[in-house]
Specification:
By secondary structure, the protein is α/β, with parallel strands linked by helices. Keywords: Hydrolase.
Length: 268
């Protein structure tokens, strides 16, 4: 389980800037999603008094898993009128809350999670949402850090996806058995418009790799846009960490909502 605060132990917690969303107008909680012969834990949130099928947003976790920050992002999306679902995508390989530092978490758990497994699990999340009050014709996705990279891959994987927003997900990298392709490799395969949100000061995602992705997207004539925020580093939306860059986070959030509206999500 997560620590006393609800945040991942490996996160560099800074509670003074944490954003907490009131739950009065939403219905939220834990659930279990059948997938590939297993039951995957997930968190979901929706408007309390919504009528009719809701647009769906799959929220793809950071490296830390579905901890309090990811749950709160689901609640924020619920207040905007979405059914938001955040699945625990590492659940077969282990629990991220058992690790107290990022390098060990990555080497002992995250690197062992196959992309193909994750993409198939996300399809089951979409199916679950469609059976539980979501509109399968308004399927959207967003992801953060580790989930940002997965978000690009999912936009090339699922032809039913209407739009995706990737927050500071790596674009290039070493190819392995578990990660045979990276976003730059699938630019020609995108099924959905993708908005990428990146920080100019992100030491883990150099700007030259962002430019490489932009070139790949242009060459593919893909419907995609990448925004780079000056002064922002990695995880600039993570309001519970010192990396939080409020101005960029707020602008990115509004851009995400506008992207979803533009490409068939929630109506204006």
């Amino acid at each position: 389980m997560t620590g006393k605060t609800g945040f991942a132990p490996a996160a560099d917690l800074q509670t003074s800037t944490v954003v907490t969303t009131a739950g009065d107008a939403i219905s939220a909680g834990e659930t279990s999603i059948p997938t590939q012969g297993d039951n995957m834990p997930a968190y979901h949130a929706r408007p309390k008094d919504a009528e009719g099928p809701l647009p769906i947003v799959i929220v793809i976790q950071e490296i830390f898993g579905v901890h309090e920050h990811i749950r709160d992002l689901c609640r924020r999306l619920a207040l905007e009128g979405y059914l938001a679902v955040a699945p625990e995508l590492y659940f077969r390989q282990g629990d991220p809350n058992e690790y107290s530092d990022i390098p060990t978490l990555f080497s002992n758990l995250v690197s062992k999670v196959p992309d193909a497994q994750v993409l198939a699990d996300l399809d089951h999340v979409a199916n679950w949402a469609a059976r539980n009050g979501g509109d399968p014709h308004r399927l959207l996705a967003t992801g953060f850090c580790w989930g940002g990279r997965i978000n690009w891959l999912y936009a090339a994987h699922n032809p039913q996806l209407k739009a995706a927003v990737a927050w500071y997900g790596k674009l290039v990298g070493e190819k392995t058995l578990n990660s045979p392709k990276h976003p730059v490799d699938i630019a020609t395969d995108l099924n959905a418009p993708v908005l990428g949100l990146y920080g100019a000061e992100d030491t883990g995602i150099p700007l030259d790799t962002v430019e490489t992705m932009r070139h790949a997207l242009r060459a593919a004539n893909a419907t995609a846009e990448i925004v780079v925020y000056p002064g922002a580093g990695h995880a600039f939306n993570a309001d519970y960490r010192p990396s939080y860059h409020e101005e960029s986070a707020k602008d990115g959030w509004q851009r995400m909502l506008a992207w979803f509206r533009q490409y068939g999500g929630k109506k204006s």
